[in-house]
Design brief:
about 400 residues; mainly alpha; Serine Threonine Protein Phosphatase 5, Tetratricopeptide repeat; 21 helices
């Protein structure tokens, strides 16, 4: 997988160093050499690389023993994508002056651009691991990802991506290349799995999860049922089946019996593993929506026994207790949900309901004011924050309740 990189962004830091060096040369050389040096430096600073190339090529003919001239010419070639010309110029610069700043890094980048990854890697690794310059380290890291990928050292490429995303958390180019590397590594790993064990439980499980994530429900069900055929007590498999059945019911109009079938899968998961809080929660939520509040309460409480900080289960239990006319018991659960997620509109809404049922107008108004503040903020942002347990059915306001005034 080739990772296209922006050369100007990569090497912008180098032009400052090399231009400064060549400007110093301008003050030390007479006549044509001084004029060409000044022309090249000016063209470099204005990003007129073709003009800089002509000036430095002429200067090279007059000052072939000056390392800075070869380095600057190599930089100009690099910026124009003339990597086959950049490499010999940079090699000559380093031969004349091994201590020349950043020339070895630029040479490694040029080699990487030419696909000569084996030779490029040592220089890129050194710059990435040892440089204190953030811009230079970023540039070297991006090229090192490319080189490792070209050498099929995919795990090493992912390792660099993890380091880069930690160092440059808000850099869109870093995040873009990291996402491609992660996806590629996942694909290659799954392909290896299919080659090593094509009929295994693990292949069907991976395929099921991939199809589920893409919303291809029938294919996901087929793969998950293949897992059940191999191992009916595989932890989590009946829960996954139940989740896909619920998702399909929500996406496909006219789907009948899917919710009942999902309920059976969740119950089977609980039978296999009584500590599976997710399955207990889904059973509770199905009962709550059906109006079977006592069963809903039982299963919400079961989920919380095994996972006390299950935010959605806390909200579900709280709203169920309110519906059972036990608002005083609901308040601690809703408050705990808010401690876990201070931006839960649903928790604040039902907390206001509970206080209203108890006649506590002050507490009701406070909870409702926060609810309205959160709702107004949500309407003015496109970012959706997802908190714990995204793989379960999220607690949402009932459409009728959302538009009803609590005042």
């Amino acid at each position: 997988m080739r990772l296209p990189l922006q050369r100007r962004a990569i090497c912008g830091l180098l032009v400052v160093v090399l231009t400064g060096l060549v400007r110093s040369l301008a003050g030390q050389t007479p006549d044509a050499r001084g004029r060409l040096s000044a022309e090249g430096a000016r063209a470099l600073s204005e990003h007129r690389y073709a003009d800089a190339e002509r000036a430095y090529e002429a200067l090279r003919d007059l000052s072939s023993g000056v390392a800075e001239v070869h380095a600057s010419l190599g930089f100009v070639y690099f910026q124009q994508g003339k990597f086959t010309l950049a490499v010999p110029s940079l090699r000559q610069a380093i031969a004349l002056k091994p201590s020349l700043p950043n020339a070895s890094v630029l040479l490694a980048m040029s080699l990487s651009e030419l696909g000569q990854f084996e030779e490029a890697v040592p220089g890129l690794e050194q710059a990435f691991r040892q440089s204190s310059d953030k811009a230079l380290r970023r540039a070297a890291g991006l090229q090192l990802q490319r080189a490792y990928t070209g050498l099929e050292r995919h795990a090493d490429a992912v390792g660099v991506a993890l380091q880069l995303t930690g160092l440059y958390r808000d850099d869109p180019e870093i995040l873009y290349h990291a996402s491609r590397l992660y996806a590629n590594f996942a694909f290659l790993t799954l392909r290896s799995l299919a080659q090593v064990a094509p009929d295994s439980l693990w292949v069907h499980l991976a395929a099921g999860e991939a199809n589920e994530s893409l919303g291809i429900d029938d294919a996901a069900l087929k793969e998950y049922r293949a897992v059940v055929a191999i191992d009916s007590k595989r932890p989590g498999i009946h829960f996954r089946l139940g989740r896909v059945l619920l998702a399909r019911a929500g996406r496909v109009a006219g789907t009948t019996g899917a919710e009942s079938e999902a309920l059976k899968e969740f119950a089977q998961e609980l039978e296999n593993d009584p500590t599976n809080a997710n399955s207990a929660y889904e059973i509770a939520e199905i009962h709550r929506k059906a109006g079977d509040l006592r069963e809903a309460r039982t299963f919400f409480e079961t989920a919380l026994v095994h996972y006390p900080d299950f935010e959605d289960a806390l909200v579900g239990l709280g709203r169920t207790l309110i519906a059972l006319e036990q608002p005083k018991l609901a308040i601690p659960h809703l408050n705990r949900a808010i401690q876990l997620n201070a931006e839960s509109e649903v928790a604040y809404y039902h907390l206001a309901q509970a206080h209203r049922a108890l006649g506590d107008t002050s507490a009701q108004e406070k909870a409702l004011a926060t609810f309205e503040q959160l709702r107004n903020a949500a309407e003015h942002t496109s970012a959706t924050k997802t908190f714990a347990r995204p793989e379960v059915t999220k607690q949402k306001l009932d459409p009728a309740a959302a538009g009803k005034s609590l005042r």
